[in-house]
Specification:
Strand order of the largest sheet: 1-2-3-4-5-6-7-8
CATH superfamily: Copper homeostasis (CutC) domain
Order of helices and strands: EHEHEHEHEHEHEHEH
CATH class: Alpha Beta
Strand content: 15-25%
Helix content: 40-55%
């Protein structure tokens, strides 16, 4: 049976998603920016209330670039978030050539020290996805969140299936516009173990409990 990860942009959303049946929470902040690093104190406050794993976003800019000062900040954030109870991390930084930037990604992977790390949708911006998959595996990412280099996961699901078959040593997570109306079609075509959604309805940045339940029930 496949599993459901819900992206949550604040603490109330994380609690809603967990209570509605999400298998894993991706915790971040700032919906308008596409998800930035949450406050470690925010994670610490909800950690005792959520039994599911919580993966935490590491990102401080709206794009996928990284500076020396930005990396220094994220290193401190990672350690604080680990102390606060993070079960894994979600990040990914690109260089100007739109390939994975080595120093920042490998530094954070090493600091994660055994906790699983997801390469997020920066991957879909890479100019050479095949090479990026091989690099992600070599460096130690455990999963890749992707829409198959398409605008939505539904449009890219065949590519995701192909990548998963070719690279079984890393887990692909289908994400990008995943909502209940087209989720049955995505599941019919998909051959993945994980699906990712923000479970938002009508532009509201708060997770919708009924949407989470609909998505989860389709996986049962």
């Amino acid at each position: 049976m496949a599993s459901l990860e819900i992206a949550c942009f604040d603490n109330p959303s994380a609690i809603i998603a967990a209570e509605a049946g999400a298998d894993r929470i991706e915790l971040c902040r700032d919906y308008a920016s596409g998800g930035l690093s949450p406050d470690p104190f925010a994670l610490a406050r909800i950690r005792p209330r959520i039994k599911q794993p919580i993966y935490v976003m590491l990102r401080e800019t709206v794009d996928f670039s990284i500076s020396f000062s930005g990396l220094s900040l994220l290193k401190h954030q990672l350690l604080a978030l680990k102390t606060a109870g993070a079960d894994g991390f979600v990040f990914g930084f690109l260089n100007v050539q739109l390939s994975l930037e080595e120093s920042s990604n490998r530094t954070l992977l090493e600091l994660a020290a055994g906790l699983p790390c997801t390469l997020h949708r920066a991957f879909d911006r890479c100019v050479d996805q095949e090479k990026s998959i091989e690099t992600a595996i070599q460096w130690g990412f455990s999963s890749i969140l992707s829409a198959g280099a398409a605008s939505t996961a539904l449009l890219g699901i065949k590519q995701l299936n192909n990548w998963q078959a070719a690279y079984p040593e890393i887990q692909f997570i289908a994400g990008g516009g995943v909502r209940s109306p087209h989720f049955p079609e995505l599941l019919t075509q998909g051959q993945l173990n994980w699906y990712h959604s923000a479970a938002l309805v009508a532009g509201d940045p708060m997770v919708d409990a009924e949407e989470v339940r609909k998505l989860k029930n389709m996986l049962l």
